[in-house]
Amino acid sequence: xxxxxxxxxxxMAMCDLAGHRTGRPVALADIAERQDISLSYLEQLFAKLxxxxxVNSVRGPGGGYLLARPxxxxxxxxxxxAVDEPVRATRCSPGQPFGCxxxxxxxxxxxxxxxxSNQIYLYLASVTLADVIEGRxxxxxxxxxxxxxxxxxxxxxx
Length: 158
What we know:
Layout: H1 5-19, H2 28-35, H3 39-51, E1 55-58, E2 64-67, H4 76-82, H5 110-126, H6 129-133, H7 149-157
Antiparallel strand pairs: 1-2
Helix pairs in contact: 1-2, 1-3, 1-4
């Protein structure tokens, strides 16, 4: 599964905005240059982010955008949802009474992909802009369980 450019660019731009907190508005042209994103595309994204209540705009000379709330209180999921990017791994549209197959049935793996979508959303809801810009994203300290690892360990020590 791959997230669209819209969601990725919105998160990149919001991280840039959060990372340049000076108390003054940040111009979209500056974000566009730093993140190598088209200015016209950012204007479209920030219109949606503003309507979603995630940023405030300041007009006039020295204008630009400010975060509407602290980075510590802004989950990444809010950003993705504000730019109309539902997190889903199924081919079916959310809320449809029928599935993605030609006969309108759900495929055999529908529940698997639906749960993956739910887990991705829960993860993105647990990560804030502050987590991203402060580098608190990384591998868990929990060792991944590899099937058969216990057997290998037993064979090596025997």
